[in-house]
Design goal:
The chain has 115 residues and is mainly β. It is built from one helix and ten strands. The strands form two sheets. A six-stranded mixed beta sheet has the order 2-10-9-4-5-6, with no helix packed on it. Strands 1-3-8-7 form a four-stranded antiparallel beta sheet.
Length: 115
């Protein structure tokens, strides 16, 4: 069964940090790049960061220098370390495969940046 389970979100003040985790089924994790996506209220879902099977990373300009994506192939888990968080980072964060997304989404994890 294909599964994506995100965790680690929460309420944080501007300038704070959070670390998101996504546990994926081995059947999809082992053969795909992975990405973190987010969807803010009233906006379309966007790709935030991606990591290839061999560890190459890319980021959307708005998070460069603040977010770090990584993967642990032994644990079938992808992480997103988020530092210097801003109110505009508030969104539900999801993981999925990259560059092609599978038609399965987890429940996401809510990140709220507010004072």
């Amino acid at each position: 069964q294909v599964q994506l389970v995100e965790s680690g979100g929460g309420l944080v003040q501007p300038g704070g940090s959070l670390r998101l985790s996504c546990a994926a089924s081995r059947s999809i994790f082992s053969f795909n790049g992975m990405g973190w996506y987010r969807q803010a209220p009233g906006k379309e879902r966007e790709l935030v960061a991606s990591i290839s099977i061999d560890g190459r990373t890319n980021y959307v300009d708005s998070v460069k220098g603040r977010f770090t994506i990584s993967r642990d192939n032994a644990k079938n888990t992808v992480y997103l370390q988020m530092n210097s968080l801003r109110p505009e980072d508030t969104a539900v964060y999801y993981c999925n495969t990259w560059p092609s997304r599978i038609n399965v989404w987890g429940q996401g994890t809510q990140v709220t940046v507010s004072s």
